[in-house]
Amino acid sequence: MPKYLVKASYNPAGAQGLLAEGGSARRDALTASVESVGGTVETFLYAFGGDDLYIVMDVPDNVSAAALGLTIGAAGAITWNTTVMLTPEEIDEAVGRSVSYRAPGA
Asked: Which of 24, 37, 63, 67 suits 84 as a labelling partner, its CA being 20 to 30 A distant?
């Protein structure tokens, strides 16, 4: 199953919700959302700095990942950024592919 890294940041309303519910409750709510599209949460960690939350999740496909991002982002409590992650074996496969490319101005 494809793996995705999510970096999320709470806005003031989202931070108020986190203060009211606590971190464990928000983790459980997010886990339920990921499971609703057939996925699993591998890592769920809070941080301080540029981003408030880091999630590593496995979901069936890009459409499922997009559905999560759209639904959660539309709720308006957090900014949700998804990065597709690749295994070393997938990079090995990519390195082995022949690609036709011309650099700008070449």
From this structure: 24
